[in-house]
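Consider the tokenized backbone below.
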């Protein structure tokens, strides 16, 4: 049996849900924000991929091609992770 002091109960003694699902307007606004975020970060991701391609195709131009490739990889990977985490936050927030 649940302790009535600790439980979320309504006036009739029924349990209330811990959260409510967002309305369709809120979900639409979150979807639009996610698309705008994707459009803003897309160029940064493509720049990182282009830098990696440049290093692979022209290794003779770099004193240390491994470091140059790692810089492009870290840029592309960090943008990918940033976008993934932001999408998860947008999808999992209830308020």
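A designed sequence for it:
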């Amino acid at each position: 049996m649940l302790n009535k002091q600790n439980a979320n109960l309504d006036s009739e003694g029924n349990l209330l849900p811990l959260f409510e699902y967002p309305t369709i307007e809120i979900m639409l606004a979150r979807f639009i924000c996610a698309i705008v975020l994707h459009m803003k970060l897309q160029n940064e991701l493509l720049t990182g991929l282009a830098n990696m391609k440049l290093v692979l195709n022209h290794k003779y131009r770099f004193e240390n091609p491994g470091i140059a490739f790692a810089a492009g990889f870290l840029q592309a990977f960090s943008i990918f992770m940033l976008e993934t985490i932001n999408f998860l936050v947008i999808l999992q927030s209830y308020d």
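The radius of gyration is 23 Å.
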